[in-house]
Design goal:
Oligomer: homodimer
Largest sheet of chain A: 10 strands, mixed
Number of helices of chain A: 6
Largest interface: A-B, 24 and 24 residues
Radius of gyration of chain A: 19 Å
Structural class of chain A: alpha+beta
Chain lengths: 254, 254
């Protein structure tokens, strides 16, 4: 069995997230169906993380084991012809036997896109969060800086998934103005359930004057999800970068 | 009754074109339902032209008459809250009593977007034509120049709609490389049914070596739709500019 690692892109609008569910269409389920057909035996796709319903990925990594002899460089064309048009494999390579898209991951970056204009743009429906009010970028930047570093992020995670610890390291949380978009980029060694969206929702509360920028450290200390901002809608969230050692890392940064 | 002119944007993926049909969702039908509700009386929206199923518009103009007292500058916000997220009114103003979005139009520009890469991009599904083969831009540019000017365009129109004459003036037909996109911009005083897409399909035939670039004048002379290229898919087609005299013209260029 060869272990193949691949770069996946998907528009998550139509899917109930990554993970296979019994009744709803998911990215994993759709991908496994196409790969199983292509390889001629049942395939299990190991994703780099769960994504929520409606969340997108420009760079998502998964690996799978197969006894088929399809060369990885031909996999994208062959698989894409069997995948729906909102999911595509961009690249694939042979990975070391012990490579696991989730366990081998060093860090990840998510980008959250807000369409900040008084009139919505029909071409960004489902692909950016339409927010027609003025944003206080300076206050959000002051607040954002408090999230950077190693902290207990229990205050910005939704319960529902088990985790050994709620301590994570946020490497950066940057806000860029790309009129009419505002882009938030957050990179961490790992993300708790809904953590990226809860951080964005909290920053929007800061912009709206509902939370003071310098209250963030205290709110993190309280570890109380009810005192931070709401979970921002999934529409604006994209997985945009992921880091690994070795050749898989080089592929995902190419 | 006041005559109001408005700038409309829509992602046409879900619609069977502009014009009201008995059973299928159309942009006109959806728009008229929202405006009728807003204005409190039945509204007829006069569009600047029919668009086909799946065709998009960044700048589309329509006008309608209403006895309601809603100020045009408030119309976009009020109407957009009643419209689905893939249709939005961007601006609106009072127009002269005799203004008609179709009859008053001086010229229009369509943009056709090809996503020219070996791997498709899930985020452009339905919004660009995915064409994974090499394009011969130079040959297409030679062929494109032959379409510019006043000609009988019967060779690149589908039958099915009545028209007094098939003579039109193409002001420009330009090809821009914006990797991984190729953008065609075609401006004319008017477009016959499927004319923009038939021109693009013919240019693709030129790129594929099926038509010689300098055969275009002769093919136009033959006036035989079967000898030109196929009608390119609607996904890549956007109405991008439209010209009028006076204040409506200024609004649509703003």
């Amino acid at each position: 069995m060869m272990n193949i690692a691949a770069w996946l892109m998907f528009d998550g609008s139509r899917y109930h997230g990554w993970q296979v569910q019994q009744f709803d269409a998911t990215v994993q389920g759709t991908l496994e169906a196409a790969l199983s057909r292509l390889c001629g035996h049942p395939i299990t796709a190991h994703g780099c993380g769960r994504t929520d319903a409606g969340v997108h990925a420009e760079r998502y990594c998964f690996n799978f084991r197969t006894s088929s002899s399809i060369p990885p460089d031909r996999l994208p064309y062959a698989a894409n012809s069997l995948l729906p048009p909102d999911i595509a494999i961009k690249k694939a390579i042979y990975a070391p036997e012990d490579f696991d898209a989730n366990l081998s991951c060093l860090k990840k970056e998510y980008t959250y896109r807000i369409y900040n204009s008084r009139i919505r743009d029909p071409f960004y429906t489902g692909r950016a969060y339409f927010y027609p009010h003025r944003l206080d970028i300076s206050s959000m930047r002051v607040a954002a800086a408090h999230f950077v570093g190693t902290h207990d992020f229990a205050a910005v995670r939704s319960v529902g998934t088990e985790t050994k610890t709620t301590i994570r390291t946020v490497h950066w949380l940057e806000i860029a103005e790309k009129e009419p978009f505002i882009e938030f980029k957050v990179c961490a060694d790992g993300f708790l359930y809904n953590m990226a969206r809860a951080i964005i929702g909290t920053l929007l509360y800061v912009s709206e004057g509902k939370i003071a920028p310098d209250d963030i450290p205290q709110l993190l200390d309280f570890k109380d999800r009810r005192q931070t901002g709401p979970t921002a809608p999934p529409d604006g969230l994209y997985m945009t970068r992921i880091w690994y050692n070795g050749e898989v890392g080089a592929m995902m940064e190419s």
